[in-house]
Prior knowledge:
Elements: E1 4-10, E2 14-20, E3 26-33, E4 45-46, H1 48-66, E5 73-80, E6 85-89, E7 99-100, H2 108-117, H3 120-127, H4 136-146, H5 150-155, E8 159-163, H6 164-172, E9 182-184, H7 185-188, H8 203-208, E10 218-220, E11 223-228, E12 238-244, H9 245-252, E13 261-265, E14 269-276, E15 287-292, E16 300-307, H10 311-319, H11 329-334, E17 344-346, E18 364-366, H12 374-400, E19 407-410, H13 417-427, E20 431-434, H14 439-451, H15 458-462, E21 467-471, H16 477-492
Parallel strand pairs: 1-5, 5-12, 9-10, 13-19, 19-20
Antiparallel strand pairs: 1-2, 2-3, 4-7, 6-8, 11-12, 13-14, 14-16, 15-16, 17-18, 20-21
Helix pairs in contact: 9-14, 10-12, 12-13
Amino acid sequence: MTKYIGAIDQGTTSTRFLVFDSAGRIAACAQKEHRQIYPQPGWVEHDAEEIWQRTQDVIGEALAQARLKAGDLAAVGITNQRETTVLWNRKTGKPLAPAIVWQDMRVAGEVARLARETGDEFFRSRTGLPLSTYFSALKVNWLLESIAGVRQQAEAGDVIFGNMDTFLLWNLTGGENGGVHATDVTNASRTQLMNLHTLQWDAELLRALSLPRQILPEIRSSSEIYGRIAEGPLQGVPIAGILGDQQAALVGQTCFKKGEAKNTYGTGCFLLMNTGERPVVSRHGLLTTVAYKLGKQPARYALEGSVAIGGALVQWLRDNLGLIKTSAEIEELALTVQDNGGVYMVPAFSGLYAPYWKESARGVIVGLTRYANKGHLARAVLESVASQTREVVEAMEQDSGIRLEVLRVDGGMVNNHLLMQFQADILDRPVVIPAIKETTGLGAAYAAGLAVGFFNGVEALCGHWRAEKTWKPELDEARREQMYRQWKKAVTRTFDWTE
């Protein structure tokens, strides 16, 4: 009898393979980072073949760590960085160019052109998404236009597209030798090509963006058997769950009821609220997206507030400025000062996402005086993450009509106690960390386990959730609101920086 379920967690900066037991506890975990490639300002790329190699490496390492073999795992789920775009040759399996990462801004000119000629509402009404550099469709179009001969190959069926979930699924199930070319509804909903109401590729959108239908993967549910792993240590194990990383965290946090929400602090910050079986149209700068679809059950939808730069700002402080040697050191540095010293940082490196959606914004540091030091800058970095989250929470409450009583949180940054305390302070409500913090991988494991009967329904999954720690607000109201006013003022300084 199989005792475990596996999950590939392919993120923006690293890839992990996790093994969970039937109670959702981690039995094994291996992780490897991959390169972040910046060919020019505004461009962000990954090497898709490097990510595929890292995926194989971490699977082998995690299995060896726990002395497991294929027969010990009931199934494997996949969760992935969303919107990151890969084109590859169907016959050779080779990517035709570096993967264009979700943060990349090279299609900003095309966004502006479409906004003038077609209008934002044409896209938003069908997909729940505003015109933005964020999503996959314009990245695909850029690749087809920029690489000689590729559009003709695509129209002939020799070139195919996928986000990282599709690329990994195709390779795991055989690649050029019969690999499955499919995606799930959550990832499809982030391409800006899927109709949010029919859950199918939208012919009008494809025509508007000049994209050939034959390059697209088949859209399937988030929890079903897509195929079996073709070779390697997990040969024969079914791949049975696919969820975009933020939707996976929503499932991992067992937010199955309408109005339940979570915030993930990763490379960016992503707040999702389950809105039930009907999509809710946002009037306050949020995205409408698919939350999950479990087998043949109706799809559930979500409102999402996407913040482009969260943990990536700590990496920037480490890698670009050299103020810290490891990401964990930022808390120690920030604790060398009592407060932010009047310094505020708005990390609009890729423009501003929710709730502003301003492509022309750029990052700023304001309030500098001779008094300011690197401790104040470190504190401003952490506070920016929490302040961006408050803006998204306020927009979500206005759209949904539901007040969040507590905020469930996950992701790598929840280990930063100073950040979590300030998050509770600036929100003025409790922040709750679950006992199992790897909620993204857990969500993918849940989806896969439900498909093969390893788990007995969502009610059983809800019974696994436990709180580890709750942070309660301690900041007095006058100080909280004064800091938030200053933050909002700093945000306005980022507007329309590029012309």
